[in-house]
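REQUEST FORM: STRUCTURE PREDICTION
Request ID: SP-0412
Submitted by: Lab K.M.
Chain count: 1
Length (residues): 364
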Amino acid sequence: MTSVPLGLPRLGPARPGPAGGDAAGTADRPALPGLIDRFGRAATDLRVSLTDRCNLRCTYCMPAEGLDWMPSDELLTDDELLRLIRIGTEDLGIDEVRFTGGEPLLRRGIVDLIGRVAALPRRPRQSLTTNALGLVRKAPALAAAGLDRINVSLDTMDPAVFARLTRRDRFGDVIDGLAAAAAAGLTPVKINTVLMRGVNDHEAPELVAFALRHGYQLRFIEQMPLDAQHGWDRTTMVTAAEILERLSAVFTLSPHAAPRDGAPAELFDVLAADGTTGQVGVIASVTRPFCGDCDRTRLTADGQIRNCLFSATETDLRALLRGGADDAAIADVWRGGMWVKLPGHGINDPSFLQPDRPMSAIGG
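STATUS: Completed
RESULT:
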């Protein structure tokens, strides 16, 4: 993570309080070009949601009938997205862009958009988080356009459990999509896994073994309160400590030597009984918050900046884009939205309120 010396103490674990901040109170912001906040953090990683639509209906994300999707005229156009990404890379210090959704592969013209971002004067690293449906068909074109790597969501190695979790019988398409991404050079291919108690938590070793066999990097993510149904229950969440305990019963784990540098995953080197080696990560957003090292800024598909995944407020850039604001004005408002970021997400505080937007409408 990039940090900026502001004469402020470095953050430790997240302090309680609602996330998001207030759009006011930016008068004390120093005249620095980047996306800094009052606690010395600098956002250099831009998460861009391309759509709120998805072709799965994962039980921990949305109801079986889906959601009311954003009207098309509210979504940013490709030209608007490109302009904001250009402002971010040229004026605000963004050096990595992650495309998310919903399911980003549902966005028409995604290959062309990635190609246009790759052609920017200050080319950012580009990655994509996807459910991998359609990836077999699109992986070569995405790589040729300039995408650097892929994250794929996969929570189980059991096709029946997959169908129950996602409400779709598409397990084979995800497995084929992973292979297609690796063949296209979109590496390292990373797998994002959410374990749920009594559903797939027993599969942790099997998922790691699968990743080791194929050279993928697995990331276990603690389930977070971002479901559309607002039905998240801490008692059903499988914690990082539990995950590591279950893996240690099968594999030899040792903390990865390289510094974390703001990455959300705590990495461990893995040694299997047959001598196979690799890495596994644990993203413990709830039980081991890493807010003090957060380097992310988020752009929703309808043009709102969120300075935290759990933010209670947003900064409207779409209105500026469509109202004729110049690049300098947009950059300045963006800076202001990030300056008021709170120290932590506050999940563990009794006053915490789940964001109104579900994960599919925020972007991962």
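NOTES: The chain has one domain: 36-362.
Reviewed by: T.R.
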